[in-house]
Amino acid sequence: MRGFVKVLVVGALACGLLGLGCKKQEAAPAAPAPEAAPAKEVSNIPPLNENNIVSIAVRSEDHTTLVAAIKAADYVTSVAASGPLTVFAPTNDAFAKLPEGTVENLVKPENIPTLRKILQYHVTTSALDKEWLKDGQVLGMANGKKTTVSVEGDTVKINDATIVASIPASNGIVHVVDTVLLPPEE
Q1: Nearest Cα to 78, choosing from 35, 48, 42?
Q2: pLDDT in tens, 41-80
């Protein structure tokens, strides 16, 4: 939502400046003005390595809700950091399992602290390959809370979330999960 407002404000300013520039050019017929560069899309995503965790999520059609949440929490730069990080990335379907209106409520400015705690519960430092995760292993997450790994055959879970895919990244690893991890209540 904040990004949309920024786009509107920047767009309005650009239109106003272009309008002023056109009037000045008409008033003083000097040398022709150079062609304006095409407008760039405004985003709060910094230039990224194409194999960075954020870049991977941005390119995924299955993670648009996660990307919107990361933007709303102003965590793009943090997740794009050098790492190494392991991110348990819920799919759009995982977010859809939450009660109706949960995501829309979490991205409201007054609920950003809660959103940040939830997102932090999906990140741990160091890049942990799926094969390295062991049954009963406890992971410390970025919000200071713990998750528990369970392994049964080829199925690896973090709490109740099943890892359905793993994607290596330049700053860690993305484990795609089918359920949103909710931190334990304080």
Answers
A1: 48
A2: 445 555 457 888 999 999 999 999 999 999 999 988 888 8
**Cβ contacts of 163 within 8 Å, gap of 6 or more:** 88, 130, 156, 157, 175, 176, 177
Phi (first) and psi of residue 48, to 5 degrees: -130, 155
| 3-state class (DSSP) for residue 88 | strand
- Which CB contacts under 8 angstroms, 24+ apart, belong to 115-118? 115/69, 115/72, 115/73, 116/73, 116/75, 117/143, 117/183, 118/180, 118/181, 118/182, 118/183
Alpha-helical segments (H) within the chain: 2-27, 53-59, 64-72, 76-79, 92-96, 102-106, 112-120
For residue 7, is pLDDT > 60?
no
Q: How many Å apart are CA 173 and CA 53, to the nearest integer?
A: 7
The CA distance from 163 to 142, in Å, is: 19
Tell me the domain boundaries of the chain: 1-42, 49-177
State mean pLDDT over 113-140: 96
Share of the chain above pLDDT 90, in %: 64
Sign of CA dihedral 14, 18, 21, 27: negative
Fold topology of 49-177: FAS1 domain (2.30.180)
